[in-house]
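Quick one, probably user error.
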């Protein structure tokens, strides 16, 4: 009985710690997105998640460590989205799935996208290792797949990197420039507007490489 109670308490403590860390990361993501790394303070982050600053330092001893953890979380989410680019699927299925997932990330993780964009704009001092290893490896494998599609005559000849950069720029615009979009839209995009925007991006990009969306295979 005592062992069971001890295990339950241990499990509860672990769950509470995980929940607190998640709250800290959520708050830090928002602060870093709005103020940048230089402008963000541990006090502002602590205030945002309702913790004493000393408690925040218990979980993350420095702003640098907290920032890197925020970036790592964003990168993990984006890598999961990258997996939706199924290298065994047809060009239409693979690209549509990837674009849809990227658009959903811009809707769900707008602050995370801004943190990433700010980091890259400043020369990626924290995440350069990610760019040179994991992201470069992922990009090279997709470039090879796109070249295979071209060789098979499945899509028209394009430079694969330009295609990928166009997808990233277009989909991430909905997060990085969300304020501009919401101002021009007289408010946040509704669900049907997100669906329409996603379909528009998919249709224009697919047609641009010679795929007629929805046409019989």
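Nope, works fine. Designed sequence:
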């Amino acid at each position: 009985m005592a062992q069971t109670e001890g295990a339950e308490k241990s499990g509860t403590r672990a769950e509470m710690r995980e929940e607190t860390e998640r709250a800290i990361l959520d708050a830090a993501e928002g602060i870093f997105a709005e103020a940048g790394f230089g402008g963000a303070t541990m006090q502002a982050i602590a205030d945002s998640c309702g913790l004493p600053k000393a408690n925040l330092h218990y979980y993350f001893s420095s702003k640098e460590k907290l920032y890197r953890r925020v970036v790592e979380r964003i990168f993990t989410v984006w890598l999961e989205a990258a997996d939706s680019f199924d290298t065994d699927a047809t060009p239409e299925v693979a690209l549509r799935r990837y674009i849809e997932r990227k658009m959903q990330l811009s809707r769900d993780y707008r602050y995370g996208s801004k943190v990433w964009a700010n980091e890259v704009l400043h020369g990626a001092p924290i995440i350069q290792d990610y760019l040179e290893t994991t992201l470069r490896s992922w990009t090279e494998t997709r470039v090879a797949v796109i070249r295979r599609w071209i060789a098979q005559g499945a899509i028209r000849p394009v430079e694969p990197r330009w295609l990928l950069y166009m997808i990233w720029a277009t989909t991430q615009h909905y997060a990085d420039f969300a304020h501009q979009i919401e101002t021009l839209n007289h408010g946040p995009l509704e669900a049907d507007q997100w669906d329409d925007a996603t379909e528009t991006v998919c249709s224009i990009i697919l047609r641009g490489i010679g795929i007629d969306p929805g046409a019989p295979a």
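The chain has two domains: 1-61, 70-212.
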